[in-house]
Structures
1.
Amino acid sequence: MTDAFQLNTAQLHETVPLSRILGLRLDEASDETVRLALDWRPELCTAGAVLHGGALMSLADTAGAVCAFLNLPEGAEGTTTIESKTNLLAAVRGGAVTATATPLHRGRTLIVVETELRDDADRLVSKTIQTQAVVQSGAG
């Protein structure tokens, strides 16, 4: 896909409604790098005011999906996550978390993306590797 493709936060929220509920912000979107941010909020936490792992995994999954979409081969209409592996490495008790997704493999049928989540202190919060299946136009 071309770097000329432009995507903004409002379009992300329209395309992925969960991103609106979570309050995700799109900071950068190219075929090489996607950056999304999530602010800590009490309603996204578990015990001890720690940002819930599901919120973190949703951030990583969304960043990876956008990255895969921006790397679709010609003629494809979309992607769907078929596998995701996340290591949660640090608790987040405030501030914001930034997801940076980069493609590891861009194939005709599969796209593999690596996503790192970092907090405001640039501490590694989690690492996710996900495989996205390419959905071909007219597939049913």
Note: The longest strand covers residues 76-88.
2.
Amino acid sequence: MRDNDLRARHKRRFKRTTDSHHGWPVAPNLLDQDFTATGPDKKWNADISYVWTREGWLYLAVVIDLFARRVVGWATGDRPHRDLALSALRKPRPCAARQPG
């Protein structure tokens, strides 16, 4: 392998991203799976996703206006902490009031 400049690929370790046994309060589910909105800025949805890069895990928090289906805030970081989600909420946002389509 060394003569041919080949290297074994290492299996990636499982990355646990959710801690369901925490002491923090859990927010109520206000949407109850109803993702329709009657106007802009009435309902927002947010999520944190992660991508493996050469430098390690990159976490992406995104906030979407459910009426316009447009991103109203986002942030990236190296850890999925609450500050990442708060950063996405605080980012300057484009006008989400445009009609979808």
Note: DSSP finds one helix and three strands in the chain.
3.
Amino acid sequence: MKVLYAIAAAAVTAGPVYADCSYPAPPEKLPDGNSATLDEMVSAQKAIKEYNKAIEAYVACIKLEHDDAVAKAGDKLTPAQKADMERVEVQKHNAAIDQLQSVADRFNEQVRLFKAKHKDEPKG
């Protein structure tokens, strides 16, 4: 229990919380590949690319936030506290990447459906 209080105290005093580290929301809606238009698919692709950029920025931000907190705490942190802070940063990173992968996988499935439905249509 004392370790939890120490970690909480270190986190509060370790440095600023970066306002830019807000978790990005995934695109609100992905088109249905069976009924979507090409424009809807292209718009969704752009939204996925923007979401990817937002996740990359978030991951960089939480890394910076972690590094700054550890640097500012200096010798005040025990090895266990540093390990706990690292674990939390890694969990946030992995959760963000997993979410991005899930969204990309769902979109790619819709792209496959769209392409299958429109495979015999003339291009252009």
Note: Residues 2-13+37-117 form one domain.
